[in-house]
Amino acid sequence: MKNFIEASKILPERLHGALSKINPELACDIQEIRVRANKPLVLVIKGASAFITYNSRISFLLPENAVAVTHEEVEQVFNNACGYSVHSHLKNISRGFVTLKGGHRVGIAGEAIIEDGRISGIKNISSLNIRIAREHKAAADDVIRYIYTGNLKSIIIAGPPLSGKTTMLRDIARQLSGLELSRYYKTVIVDERNEISASDLGIAHTDLGLNTDVLSSYPKGEGILCALRALSPDIILCDEVGFINEVMAIEEGINSGVKFIVSVHASDKNELLSRPQSKRLILSGAFDKVVLLKNSSNPCCIDRIFEARELEDEIRGSNSFGDIMHSDRELLYKA
């Protein structure tokens, strides 16, 4: 409930008032608040979209008296998310999000501002998605129990959106650096979007263990290299690996003997083996296990644990190298 209240504070009083009367038990299951101009307010509850009425009742079918959002209220939410200092958030805004205190992320949809062929900002904001961050201690108990039996291992955590990948990473860091394996492992988190640590003025507001360093707001590729150069980590964690420079930095770290725990988007095994980034990570031969999470209805629940070597053999056996080339250390995509 605390996380929901914290995240919803950026809403205008009218909208916040309706949400504040929701049953506390139900509020704990709300994963996202979606705010769209001239559309009903939508709550995502265990992966399903629901609506709220003016008397604070929840319905999974659109009711006649659903709370609707005005364009002015969307603008107000955006300004509140930026602390009325849009300029100080331009870097993240150009990438489509703003991170709130507490690690809650506000996704932004609107009209892109293009300068020199790059997105420099967003204007005419049409909708916002407030994703509620939650800290679930013990979320990684099964990963620790089944995988970390005395030694550090490199693993990939895969899952669809809202399946608990970030929550899982956070709790793994807490346990590995907190004597769960009879040793305080030197742990570094490269927290590009500030969701894992919820850092504010250099202070993490989530429990990351006793021996963890956080590189907040660093681009993942550069942050990994900085950690390798200066922080002598035993293990590095980072969320949502997607770009080739990030994969290359991980490969460099693995060659230095550092272990990694990374997350990737994949809804199932087929998607895991077909996405270029996850495929290359698996083919690096440096990961021991791949943990596939279930879905948004069962966050942080493990679907399957794969041996990375078996997945590597499967990729090689399928001759599915059409979208990957290791030429000049670049990833080339088919047109």
Which descriptors apply to this entry?
single chain; 335 residues; alpha/beta; Beta-Lactamase; Rossmann fold; 2 domains; 7-stranded antiparallel beta sheet; 12 helices; 16 strands; globular; disordered C terminus
Would you kindly provide a written description of the structure presented here, covering whatever features stand out?
The protein has 335 residues and is of the alpha/beta class. Helix content is 30%, strand content 26%. The chain has two domains: 2-131, Beta-Lactamase (2-Layer Sandwich); 141-317, 3-Layer(aba) Sandwich (Rossmann fold), CATH 3.40.50. It is built from twelve helices and 16 strands. α8 runs parallel beside α9.
What Rg, in angstroms, do the CA atoms define? 21 Å
CATH superfamily of the largest domain: P-loop containing nucleotide triphosphate hydrolases
Shape: globular
User: What percent of residues adopt helix (DSSP H or I)?
Assistant: 25-40%
What is the count of DSSP helices, taking H or I runs of 4+ residues?
Answer: 12
Looking at the overall shape, the CATH architecture of the largest domain is: 3-Layer(aba) Sandwich
Low-confidence stretches: 322-335
Q: What is the chain-wise order of helices and strands? A: HHHEEEEEEHHEEEHEHEEHEHEHHEEH
Question: Beta-strand percentage?
Answer: 25-35%
